[in-house]
Amino acid sequence: MACLQVEDISISFGGLKAVQDVSFALEPGEIMGLIGPNGAGKTTTLNLISGLYACDTGRVLLNGKDVTDKKAYERARMGLGRTFQTPRFLSRSTVGENMKLGTDLADQMGFLKSFFGKKGNDFLDEVDQYLEIADLTVNWKDDISSLSYGQLKRLEIVRALLSHPKVLLVDEPAAGLNAKELEKSVALMRHAAEKGVGIVLIEHKMDMIMNVCDHIVVLNFGKMIAHGTPEEVQSNEAVIEAYLGR
Amino acid sequence: MENGTKRSRFLRLLLVSAVVIAGILLVDKFFIQNLKNSRVNLINVALIYYFSVAGMYLMLGLGGCMSMCSIAVMGLSAFVCGFTNTKLGWPLFPAMLCGILSSVILCAVVGSLLMKLDGRAFMFGTMALVYIGTSVFQNFSAFTGGPNGTSGISKLTLFGKTFSTFKSWFVLLAIACYLLILLLHRIKNTSFGRSLMAARDDETAAYSLGVNVYRTKLLAFIISGVFSGIGGALYAVHNGTISASLFSFTTQQSFIIMLMLGGVMSPVGALFGSILVNYLPEIARSAGTYLNMLYGALIVLLMIFMPMGLAGLLKNQYQKLRKLLTGKRKKTTAKESA
Q: Is residue B293 part of a domain?
């Protein structure tokens, strides 16, 4: 069964049809690329899936359950993780507090339970495993603001993975990263996919997309213009036209 | 969070508590008992105000929401406690509980109405509550005693000891404030505390991490209502007599200054802020009519030079000193550095 199914979702902002009738399905363990020129509606599509925007039409199904009417935080609790184009962290907190927010989502403790109970330290092993894959060394008690952009980009994926998502939406993981850092981000995503997480990946770096993704959806002006394996997409006329502007 | 943490943490807590309580007893013996009664009253009231200031720390420091109605919530609790005790003849503890409960209900109702608004609208909405409160406290004579206020509230008796003078209250209130600080510290380190900070720093990130921002902030508002409610009930019993003028917007203003002066991110700082703001005018009485002018100028300087208050200033100096002594921190694994 598909872990994420998107059926004909659309949204308009005023007169602008930002996303029109986009449909695709994602199997567990699959990495799907979502590409298109700037302004094609890629991030808007992610926002529709994660619930930050409400769909005008269409449905979003998470593990077979219709979540179209669910709010963003409810979808997150149902196993939908995401990262952002610019990493979003609690700017005035420590690395540890930021990472714990990811594990809090996996634990889903109520207020009273979290007040009287004690959070175990088991998750630290998991954190270290991810940090090793991401080639990150951080101090748990440092302020998050002491980290570089490249570190934050990778740390955001780690935080999302700590919440044990079933579907992970990753928005431009390569932006601002050097080749080595990017390689580590890819390793993180591959590791997650091997564990059965379905990943939707937005990216502009074509060599990375072609290399990593099992299949690719191409958007242009909010419409889906192609859908297929990397080879199929590369030789698609409409895609070449959209990118080269013929 | 090293190995064997639970025990070592408990021992550390015990040690700190012992030192703090010993400190309180020493201050009581050598300072409070030799002070004029009116000055002890000022310090006690500052400690009672701290309950409301602690609620504001939770809302503003952790939640990023400026709530302006603590004084009205406190007033409601005080008058309900006074009414049930003097007019209905209830014993003190049920009366106090009833006061606290009334402030929780008020916060739940007002919070669920206003919390959906953005920060500024929420602030103005809660501000209106103070004006409503003052007017009700002044004019609803059957309940509050109107302009005369409520008097003759019973004296507190605890462990066979009656708290009849201001001087006898100090130790009790100081220990209550210490417990409150421990509670705030604990709250900050729960998943609820982290959710609250997430809602403060980045709502979008909070949503994507499964945080119900509205519910989290509402819960924080209700908890701050519990704190203000306890403060109000204590105020009524401590003073024995209460009147509407005690719960005006001016006091709310000083709550904000107490929090900002002490440090909006630090519960301990806010405690010292409360005591300073309440006690300083007494010391600087010789400044006479210039006092308010000086006060205003001080606040302007405070915001320019120490936006994070006294606690922020101390933290900065401490970090600079540590950096100087230990050099740059070594980066290690999460497990080792946690």
A: no
**Token pair 């540890």: residue:** A96
Q: In a mutagenesis test of the B interface, which of A50, A109, A115, A142 is the best target, namely the one with the most B β-carbons within 10 Å?
A: A115
Write the CATH number for B207. 1.10.3470
Using a CB–CB cutoff of 8 Å, tell me whether B194 touches chain A.
yes
Give the pairing of strands A215-220 and A198-202: unpaired
Residue B305 token pair: 């030079």
Closest to B59 in 3D by CA, of B221, B180, B222, B256: B221
Q: Is A111's CB within 8 Å of B335's CB?
A: no
Cross-strand pairs, A9: A22
Beta bridge partners of A6: A24, A60
CA dihedral B247, B251, B256, B259 (to 10 degrees): -100
Domain that holds residue B225: 38-282
Structural domain contains residue B229: yes
The CA distance from A92 to B102, in Å, is: 35
B84-124 pLDDT, tens per residue?
998 898 888 899 999 999 999 999 999 999 998 888 899 99
Flag if A124 and B197 touch (Cβ within 8 Å). Answer: no
Q: Is B134 part of a structural domain of the chain? A: yes
- We report the CATH number of the domain holding residue A187 as 3.40.50.300
**Owning domain of residue A235:** 4-244
CA distance B167 to A244: 83
CB A228: neighbour CB atoms within 10 A?
A: 15
Q: Number of structural domains, chain A? A: 1
CB A98 within 8 A of CB A79: no
Torsion angle in degrees (nearest 10) through CA of B284, B285, B286, B291:
70
Helix (H, G, I), strand (E, B) or coil at A217: strand
Is there a contact between B73 and B102 (Cβ–Cβ < 8 Å)? no
Any chain A CB within 8 A of the CB of B205?
A: yes
Residue A80 backbone phi and psi in degrees, to 5: -110, 105
Strands (E) across chain A are located at 4-13, 16-26, 31-35, 57-62, 65-66, 80-82, 167-171, 198-202, 215-220, 223-228
Q: Read off the pTM.
A: 0.90
Contacts of B329 in chain A (CB under 8 A): 139, 142
Number of separate domains in chain B = 1
Q: What is the pLDDT of residues B198-225, one digit of tens each?
A: 999 999 999 999 999 999 999 999 999 9
> Does B320 fall in a domain?
no
